Predict the structure.
Amino acid sequence: MAEDFVSRFVRAGAYKMHYIEAGDGYPLVMVHGGGPGAAGEFGWGHNVGPLGRHGRAIAVDQIGFGLSDKPLDREFSHLFMVDQLAAFIDALCLDELYLTGNSLGAYVAARYALDHPGRVKKLLLVSSGTVATGMGIEMGMTAGMKKLVAYDGTKQGLRNFISGIQHHPERVSEARLEKRWQYAQLPGVPEVQASFLNFFRNRRVNEPQVAQWFDLRQRLPRLDIPMHFIWGRHDVFATPEMADALMQLLPNATFEWFEDSGHVCQNDEPERYNAVASRFFFDR
């Protein structure tokens, strides 16, 4: 895939953050999900350029991922990620923006929108078991989650993980797989992954104050901006059953199925995602 974006860094609060971007105009910030080697490029590389024709598309490497800093003196939690996304948005001087996020990144995007009323004008969320969990729908050990837990640090292990999130893993080129694997080998990555997994399994549910912060049930159904969900019909990570349950809890949101997608709809069906996002955000 020819790159139709530029790579940049910015100091956001205490940390250096990396992002890719294309275009100019009204900003759309794109927040990737988790997993080994995750980064803005691998989450949104097929989307930044096309959406940059209508506005300023910005795909950030979340703190602890990609080429962004990986501080080892911090616990990696949803709170830390939301706070650092806020620092990133402030560093780019974005007073108002659109937000889209996938999986873990969808939770971070939604939580940012809740915590910063008036700044996010529209919210597009893609296949997120984390949002569902925040709404009280526990995902359990799905087939995709088992592949994440089984990741052993090898390139074949990464290939196996990608087969758990993408319905068409055969479309991932060897060059793209190699680059993502190199990102997964960067210093600090194992420590970040271990810290976040410990938080998600333990402190998120066992400490009342943390559990209260993570919970979305009282606030997300009252979010009063346009909120649209895209979900892959073949998602084995955050299953379609989770989407069905989430629909009942979020009457303020609209939902749309991608019939040929898994967990990363924007990679399985990039042209369709780009068309949906263009209409939703930019009326194009």
